C-alpha cells in the first residue's frame, strides 16, 4: 500500500457512505437513547446528525471515565506562571466539583436550554463552568476576556442569558485585568437584563458584588447540592460561540451535543494521535473555539489529561515556557497558533532554552488559527525534530476541515499546506460563478459540499436566514468557508487568503468593517478605512486611515490617540489596533468603492497595479506617502 492509501480509503468512505461511517465512529460515545436517523436531511440545507438520539456531553467528558477506571487519573492540570500556581484535578475531583457547580447554577433557575454567559480567564473554574452547563443541558456562551464591555453587551443581548458566570479578574503579564467592572458596564449597556451573576473572587483584584444580583462563587457552590447529568437531544445546542461578522453584530455559531462529541472523539485519536490516559496540551484560550474543542471537551471526552495554561509563550517568564510545560507535565502533543511560535523564535532564535528541558515524550506539534508560515514551520521542525502539523479550521467548523491525520496514517508534510480534508469534508475550489475549478493548483474560493460532517455548524443562534445568506447563498449546495486557496495534484489543500474583510491578528479573527464602524463614530472622522498589514509577529495587524471632517483643526495626534483608545474601549485589547494615519481622502473607484486591496499591497510592499477604474490616481500617492511616514514600505 502506498503512503496515504489508508487515509484516502477512509476519506472516500466518509463521503460515499457518511451514515455508516459516522455511526461507526459514534460508538466512542455513550448515548442514553439511540438515534432514529444518523443524518436527518429532511430540512436541508439545515442538516442534523444523530437525530432522535440523546446523551449528555458532561457525562461523556467526566462521569463515564470515573466509572470506568479513570477516577484517579488527572483530568485537568492547571499551570499558571502568571500566578505561580499549579494544580491537578483527577477525573473524580473534576466530576465532583462540576456536579456541585451545576447545583449552584441550577439553584438560580437555570434549566435545560437556558443560556449562560461565561466571561472568565484561564482558570480551572472556566472549564468547570462549561461542563456544569453541559451537565444541566444549559447552553453556554463563553466570551473571551480580551473583549471590551460593548462586545460582551452585544452577546448578552443576542443570546439573552439567565445567568453570567465570571471571575473578578484576569492576569495579563504586568497587569491585572478587572473583569467585574467590564461585566457591570456590559450589563448597563445591554437591553436584556441579567437576573444573576456568580463571581469567582481572585485575590489579585476582588470585586464588589451587586446586592441582590451577584453571588460569591465559593459560597454558592458550598451551599449547593450536586446535580446529575441531564440527557439532551444530540441535536440540542451545547454552546453558542460568537465570531466576527462584517458589522458590529457578531455571529452566534451554534454547536450541537451529539455530532460534536463524536467528531471530537474521532479527532483526538486519529488527527492528534493521542491515546486515552495521555497528556495533551492545547495552548489557546477557552474563549476561542480551539479552547472549547481541545482544552475542554475533546481531551476529556477521549479520557486524556488536558493542560490549562494561564500564561504566554514568552515573558512568563521567558521563551522557554512552552518547553517547560511540555517537559514538566510530559505532554505528548501541543496545539497552538503559529504566532506563538513566531514569538518564541524572535526571543530565542537558536532555541537555546530548549536544551534545559526533556521533551522525550513529545511527539507532535499542531498549528492552527492562521496559515502556518513556512519559515516558522521549518524553524520548529529543525528545533523539535518532530512532525509539525499545520491544520485548518474555523470557529464555524468546530474541528478540522483539513489536517494530517497522524493517529491514522502520517502523511508527508508539505510546507504552506494544511494537508488533506478531514472525513466528511468534500472540499472544492470554486470559480467566481461557483463552478469547481478543474485545473489543480489554481486559486479559488474554498467551499465544502453539503452536508458538513458531524460537530460542525447547524446554524447561527436565532438567525437561520443570516446563516443561509452568509454561508450558503453564494454557492448553492456548498458551505462557503470565506477562505481562498487551492488543491494540488496530491489532494493537499493550501489556504492563501480571506475573500472578505476578515483579518487574522495573532490567531484572532477580526472584521475590519467592525473596526471601521468604531472609527467612523468619532466626532472628527468623516470617512475611514481599515486594512490588515503584514506583521512579523502577529501575522497581520489592523491599520486605519482617517479622513477628517472639514474644519477639524485639533492636533492630529490627539484624534489618532482617541480613535485608538475608542477601539480598545469598544472592541477590546484583542483588536490590537495601535496605528492610524490621517489622509486627505481615500482612494476609490469611480463607483465609490474604497480600494482596500491596493492599499494593503502598498502597505505590505507588494507589487500593485493602478486600478483602471480609479477615480483619482493621486489619492494612492497620498496613501503611499502616509504609509511611508508611518514606517510601512511602498514599492510601486
Ligand atoms: C482554528 C480555529 C481558530 O482559529 S480559533 C482561534 C485560535 N487562536 C488562538 O488560539 C489565539 C492564538 N494567540 C494567542 O494565544 C496570543 O495571541 C499569544 C500568541 C499567546 C500572544 O498573546 P498576547 O501577547 O497577549 O498578544 P495578543 O495579540 O493576543 O493580545 C493583544 C492584547 O490583548 C490583551 N489580551 C490578550 N488576552 C487577553 C485576555 N484574556 N484578557 C484581557 N486582555 C487580553 C493582551 O494583553 C494585549 O494587550 P496590549 O495591547 O498588550 O495591552
From TrEMBL:
Residues 64-448 form the AMP-dependent synthetase/ligase domain. Residues 7-61 form the Acetyl-coenzyme A synthetase N-terminal domain. PROSITE patterns: AMP_BINDING. It comes from the Bacteria. Pfam families: ACAS_N, AMP-binding, AMP-binding_C. GO terms for molecular function: propionate-CoA ligase activity. NCBIfam families: PRK00174.1. Belongs to the ATP-dependent AMP-binding enzyme family. This is Propionyl-CoA synthetase.
